[in-house]
């Protein structure tokens, strides 16, 4: 059975890990983490988004956390 990016990312977050888009790309080959997060939320998972400053420029990136862990 093929494991989906959605199930891989959920399992990763259920172990207490948070995830950023670049981590999702590097670990799971996921180019659209925001879409996976959207689908996880639609499935009933409470996910919190934290905006973190980038270290290389003045922008921000998202870090997602599964609530209650």
Described by strand count, sense and barrel closure, the largest sheet is: 2 strands, antiparallel
Count structural domains. 1
Q: Uncertain runs with pLDDT below 50, 5 residues or more?
A: none
What helical percentage do the residues reach? 40-55%
Domain Winged helix-turn-helix: 4-62
Pfam families: HTH_39 (PF14090)
Protein name: Helix-turn-helix domain-containing protein
Organism: Acinetobacter marinus
Would you kindly provide a written description of the structure presented here, covering whatever features stand out?
The chain is of the alpha+beta class. It has one domain. The protein contains three helices and two strands, in the order αααββ. Strands 1-2 form a two-stranded antiparallel sheet. A hairpin with a 6-residue loop joins strand 1 and strand 2. Helix 1 packs across helix 3.
Write the layout of secondary structure elements.
Layout: H1 5-14, H2 21-28, H3 33-42, E1 47-53, E2 60-66
Antiparallel strand pairs: 1-2
Summarize the structure.
By secondary structure, the chain is of the alpha+beta class.
Any key phrases for this structure?
globular; 3 helices; 69 residues; alpha+beta
């Amino acid at each position: 059975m093929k494991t989906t990016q959605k199930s891989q990312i959920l399992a990763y977050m259920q172990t207490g890990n948070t995830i950023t888009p670049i981590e999702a790309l590097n670990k799971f080959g996921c180019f659209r983490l925001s879409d996976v997060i959207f689908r996880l939320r639609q499935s009933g998972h409470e996910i919190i988004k934290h905006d973190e400053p980038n270290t290389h420029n003045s922008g921000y990136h998202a870090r997602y956390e599964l609530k209650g862990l």
